[in-house]
Amino acid sequence: MTIEQRAPGEFSPASIFDVADRAGVSPSTVSRALRGLPNVAPATRERVARAAHELFYVASPAASGLASGRTTTVGIVVPFLSRWFFMRVVQGAEEVIRAAGYDVLLHNLGDAAGRERFFDRLPLNRKVDGIVLVDVTVQPHEQARLQALGVPVTVVGGDALGVGAVGIDDAAGVRMAVRHLVHLGHRDIGMLGGDAATGLNFAVPGRRRTTFLGAIAEAGLVTKPEWVVSSDWGIEGGARATERLLSSRRVPTALFAESDEVAFGALRTLRLAGLDVPRRMSVIGFDDHEMASVVNLTTVAQPVDAQGAAAARLLIHAMLGHADPFARLALPTQLVIRGSTAPPSGAGGSRRSPAVTH
Amino acid sequence: MTIEQRAPGEFSPASIFDVADRAGVSPSTVSRALRGLPNVAPATRERVARAAHELFYVASPAASGLASGRTTTVGIVVPFLSRWFFMRVVQGAEEVIRAAGYDVLLHNLGDAAGRERFFDRLPLNRKVDGIVLVDVTVQPHEQARLQALGVPVTVVGGDALGVGAVGIDDAAGVRMAVRHLVHLGHRDIGMLGGDAATGLNFAVPGRRRTTFLGAIAEAGLVTKPEWVVSSDWGIEGGARATERLLSSRRVPTALFAESDEVAFGALRTLRLAGLDVPRRMSVIGFDDHEMASVVNLTTVAQPVDAQGAAAARLLIHAMLGHADPFARLALPTQLVIRGSTAPPSGAGGSRRSPAVTH
DNA sequence: GTGAAAGCGCTAACAA
DNA sequence: TTGTTAGCGCTTTCAC
C-alpha cells in the first residue's frame, strides 16, 4: 500500500526498528525481549516493553512467520459446521488453543468433494503449526498426505494411525443403550443411523451400527434388516429413517438412534404418526445434546467439549515437542435416563411419566 | 527447523526458484503465471503450471503475505460458539469466504473480558484482510479501534456505524409475534429475554425487548414488570426466566421468547410445572431453530445462513475495493405457526392440536 | 547481555 | 512478455 492510498487517519504501524530506536537498543534485543527469551536484562526488557506499548507495536505475523517458520495458528477441520457435536468440539478445542496463544483457522470440509480437495491440495499447508481433525476416519493414502504437511495432527472421534487421538468408548456407550432397553423388557429393537449418502466417510456411523448389532446378539435377540435404517445424519435424516421404519409390517417397540439429533427427528415423526413415546415406542439417543432435556430424551451422554479440549492439549504438547504423538484417550460415557424410554406396552413393570413435547 | 530435526520422509518444500528453474523462466514470471495475472504467454503459463504441479509447489503464505501485504484470510468474530444462531451465521459466511479463496480465522469472544481484550489488543491485527463481526454492537471507542486495523468490517445482526451491516427487521419480527398472540385473543403477554449478566453487550437482546413493549402498547395492552424477565440467553436461561415468571401471583396466558432457545427452556419448565402448552400457556419463539419443528414451536423465522453469507459477500466486495462499505441489508422474517400457540383457555375460537414434547 | 548481518520466500517496480 | 532488483519485517546465528 503506497502512502497516497492510505485513508487520512490511517498510519503505518510501527516496526521493530522504531521500537529499537525508542528503547535505545537493537532490533534483535527487541525481538528477544518481547518474546520473553532469556538473556535480556530486566531493565532492558522493561524499557523495550514500554517503547513497544507506546508505539502500539505488534510484530507482523507474516514477517515473524517467514523468519521463524512458525505460524502460531492451528487448524481445526470439521466435516460440517451445522452439527451440534462438531460445534461443541470446536468450542472445547478453541478455548485451549487460544489460551495457549494460538489462533484458530477453521476449515469446513462440507462434502465429499471438499474432503478430497482437502487431502489433495492441503490448503492448510504452511498456514498452521498443527491440526485437530474432527470425526474423520483418515484413510491410509490420506494419512500420507497429512504427513506431507509436516505438522502434528490429533483426531477427535475418528480412527487414525500414527497420530494422537481422543474419543469415547463408543462400543461401551452403545451397549449401555441396548442393555437399558433390554432391561426394560424390549426384545424388538431397531436402530436409526446416519451415514448414508454424505460420502464424507466420517468416523462414527459405521462403528455404532456394528456395535449395535453385536450388542443385540449378545442379548440373545435378533433384529430385522428393515429395523436398522440409515439416512442422512441430523434431524431430517432421523425423521425420514423413522418414516421408512414405520412402513414395515411389524415395527419394533424400541429405537436406538445413533445421535440425539437423529432421535429428535424420530420423535417428530412418531408424534406426527400418533405413536405415543414411550408408551408405544421407546427411543434412546446418543450424545446428551442440550435439547435432550427439553424433549425428555433418554440418552447416552458423552463429554463433547472435553474431547475437543483434550485433543487440543495433545496437539499443543506435540507441537512443543513433548508428548507422545501417538497417545490415545477414551473419555467415559454415561446413561441418562429420561422419559422417552419405558417397558414395552405388553410388559408389566414400573411406568415412568411420559415424555411430552413441550 | 534445521535439517537434522526433520523426520526421515520429510523434505523441504519447493521454492519459487525451483519452479522457475524447472520451467526455465524467472521467479517473477512464476509468480505472475501462478496467480493468473495478465501478461503471461499461454505457453509459458502452461509450462510454469506443470513445473509447479510436479514439484508440489505452493507459495508460502507468510512470504507472499509479507511481500504483498495481503493475508487471504478473513476473521469471523462471534460472542459465543455454542449458540445455534452464531454457528449458522458462521456456516453461511464460511462458505462464501472459502469460495472466494480466503481462509477463515475464527475468533471467539467468550465473555466480557474477552471482548475487551479483542478491541484493546486487536489480536487479528495484520492477520486478516477483513472481518465479519457477528451480533456485536460496536461502541464508538471500539469502532475507532476497529478502524485502526485498517481492514473492512461487516456486521451481522449488530449495530455499527461506518461499516457494512446485514440483519433482519427485528422490530417487524417482534411485532409479528405479538400480533399473532393478540389475534389469538391473548391480553396478558409476558416476555422472556436473554441479556442479563453476560456483559458481552451483544446486539439483539435490548432491541427486541424495547420493540416488544412498543408492540404491546400499540395493541392497547399492558404488561407487568414481573412478566418481562431476563436471564442468560439459551435454554437454561429460558428455563430459569420462566421459573421466575411463574412465581408471580398472576401469570400471563402467553409468552414471547427472545429466541427459540429461550423458548425451549420455557417449554421444559412449563412441562415440569405441569402447565400444558398451548392450553394453559402459549409460547412463541424467534429464529426457527431446527429444533422448533421437533417441539412444535410457533416462531418467527429468520434466514440465518443467508445473513452470514450476505455479510461475507459485502465484505469481499469491500476488500476488493468495489462496493459501498456502508451498505445495510435487512432480510425478511416470517411467522411460522405450529402447535405451541392457541387462544387462551377462557376464549372460544379454533383449537389447534397441542404441542407435544418429546 | 547485546549487536551486526544474513537470510526467510515471495511480490512489485522498473527496465528491457 | 519477461527478467532484474529491491525490499516486505522479522528471527537467528555468530561475534563481541
In short, what is this structure?
Two copies of one chain form a homodimer. In chain A, 41% of the residues lie in helices and 15% in strands.
Textual characterization of the structure:
The structure is a homodimer of 358-residue chains. By secondary structure, chain A is α/β, with parallel strands linked by helices. Chain A has three domains: 14-68, Orthogonal Bundle (434 Repressor (Amino-terminal Domain)); 73-168 and 304-331, Response regulator (Rossmann fold, 3-Layer(aba) Sandwich); 170-302 and 336-352, 3-Layer(aba) Sandwich (Rossmann fold), CATH 3.40.50.2300. Chain A is built from 13 helices and twelve strands. Chain A has helices at residues 16-23, 27-34, 42-54, 61-68, 84-99, 112-121, 140-148, 170-184, 204-218, 235-246, 260-272, 292-295, 304-319; strands at residues 73-78, 103-108, 130-134, 153-156, 164-168, 189-193, 228-230, 254-257, 282-287, 298-301, 328-331, 334-336. Chain A has a six-stranded parallel sheet with strand order 2-1-3-4-5-11, covered by helices on one side. Mean pLDDT of chain A is 89; it is low at 1-9 and 347-358. Chains A and B meet through helix 4, helix 5, strand 2, helix 11 and helix 12 of A and helix 4, helix 5, strand 2, helix 11 and helix 12 of B. Strand 2 of chain A pairs antiparallel with strand 2 of chain B. Chain A binds a DNA duplex (16 and 16 nucleotides) through helix 2 and helix 4.
